[in-house]
Design a protein that fits this description.
Strand content: 35-45%
Strand order of the largest sheet: 7-6-9-4-11
Number of domains: 1
Protein name: FdtA/QdtA family cupin domain-containing protein
Helix content: under 10%
Pfam family, one: FdtA
Organism: Pseudomonas mercuritolerans
Structural class: mainly beta
Length: 130
Amino acid sequence: MDLKVIGDQRGSLIALEPGLNIPFAIKRVYYIYGTLPDVGRGYHAHRRLEQMAICVSGSCKMIIDDGITRREMRLDSANKALVIRNMIWREMHEFSSDCVLLVLASDYYDESDYIRDYDKFIKEVNDGKK
């Protein structure tokens, strides 16, 4: 998703507004930084939670997987956002040394919402199609 940049000679601003450019109410915001380039993160899916990831500085590679299609993309721009719906496996790799990955979430932290095993994720995706 492209985020609208408002700017002039003084610099740039991007507004994040639920209902306008964020497709859910925000209940949690966090950011990932200081991750070494050879370290992967994520490796999970959420049953209900939705997220929006924005690389506000630096870059990282995102892998998203809906149980059928696995896609890779590079997040490297503060005006690009990746919306990650529920029941999507996500992995993050190749963090640049200056990477700051901002994540907006549709709900509070709830460990029971996580699927941390890929085989279990695939089983739940397939069970949901019945």
